[in-house]
């Protein structure tokens, strides 16, 4: 019996399985690059290598687009701008934090994809096409939770597709851009709310410095320590990260 110690396939591979491979598989099938086997349709080795190298170039964009990474990194960017700390925390730290938080949120989705699609395909129980279909269902359910109806309607009209009878009938080609647009809107809304308390501090400090005649001293130099101190006193990182995580549950 196979050991079940490995319970979570990496997030990037799962997303590639659900989105990019589906498109690549259809293209390869149209070009008659498939060959019949005992366990279903398989690809020849040169085609597998070519598709793998192509998917690797798309991997960063896929990971950032169909996961919570987009919302998290947008909010963290706005937070850094509101604090006025320039390059602190650095881009590497923000990207690393966003990536690990995204993997934590996507872990249940990844496990479901692994057991329903990846494991049966690797065991030869189902074909690749069937595995892509089964693996895309958990990802669709996740995207549907956060994609706004208005954005979905927009991309259905743009793609000139017929209106689906149920949300489950939507394709990933429509859901993914709708999800990205919805996450950008949500990230900007959260960022605007984060800016407000720090904006009040900037206004107060600017008014005080002007009233005492400190015209040549930039108010930002005085307000920055107060903003950082306020952020630390209220345990800002825990509040921001905790609120972001809860927004996905």
Overview of the molecule:
There is one protein chain. With 249 residues, the protein is mainly alpha-helical. Helix content is 74%, strand content 3%. It has a two-stranded antiparallel sheet.
Overall radius of gyration: 23 Å
Overall morphology:
elongated
Query: N-to-C terminal Cα separation, in Å?
Result: 34 Å
Beta-strand portion reads under 5%
Spell the H/E element sequence.
HEEHHHHHHHH
Mean pLDDT: 78
Helical proportion? over 70%
Could you name the ranges where pLDDT drops below 50 across 5 or more consecutive residues?
Answer: 1-41
The tally of beta strands, per DSSP, is 2
* Strand numbers in spatial order across the main sheet: 1-2
**Secondary-structure content class:** mainly alpha
> What is the overall number of helices?
9
Q: Mind describing the biggest β-sheet?
A: 2 strands, antiparallel
What secondary-structure arrangement, pairings included, does this model have?
Elements: H1 11-30, E1 34-37, E2 40-43, H2 45-65, H3 69-83, H4 91-123, H5 128-146, H6 149-158, H7 172-211, H8 219-233, H9 236-246
Helix pairs in contact: 1-2, 1-4, 1-5, 3-4, 3-7, 4-5, 5-7, 6-7, 7-8
Descriptive terms for the model:
74% helix; 9 helices; mainly alpha; two-stranded antiparallel ribbon; single chain; disordered N terminus; 249 residues
């Amino acid at each position: 019996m196979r050991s079940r110690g490995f319970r979570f396939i990496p997030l990037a591979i799962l997303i590639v399985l659900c989105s990019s491979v589906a498109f690549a598989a259809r293209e390869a099938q149209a070009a008659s690059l498939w060959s019949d086997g005992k366990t279903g349709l398989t690809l020849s080795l040169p085609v597998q290598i070519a598709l793998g190298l192509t998917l690797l170039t798309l991997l960063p964009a896929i990971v950032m687009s169909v996961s919570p990474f987009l919302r998290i990194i947008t909010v963290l960017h706005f937070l850094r701008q509101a604090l006025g700390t320039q390059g602190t925390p650095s881009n590497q730290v923000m990207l690393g934090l966003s990536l690990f938080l995204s993997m934590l949120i996507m872990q249940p989705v990844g496990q479901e994809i692994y057991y329903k699609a990846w494991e049966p395909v690797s065991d030869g129980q189902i074909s690749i096409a069937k595995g892509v279909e089964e693996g895309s269902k958990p990802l669709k359910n996740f995207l549907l939770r956060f994609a706004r109806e208005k954005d979905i309607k927009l991309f259905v009209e743009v793609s000139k597709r017929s209106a689906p009878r149920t949300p489950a009938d939507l394709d990933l080609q429509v859901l993914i851009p709708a999800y990205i647009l919805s996450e950008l809107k949500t990230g900007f809304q959260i960022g605007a709310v984060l800016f407000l308390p720090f904006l009040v501090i900037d206004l107060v400090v600017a008014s005080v410095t002007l009233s005492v005649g400190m015209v040549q001293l930039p108010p930002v130099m005085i307000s920055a320590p107060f903003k950082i101190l306020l952020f630390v006193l209220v345990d800002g990182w825990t509040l921001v990260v905790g609120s972001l995580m809860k927004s996905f549950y």
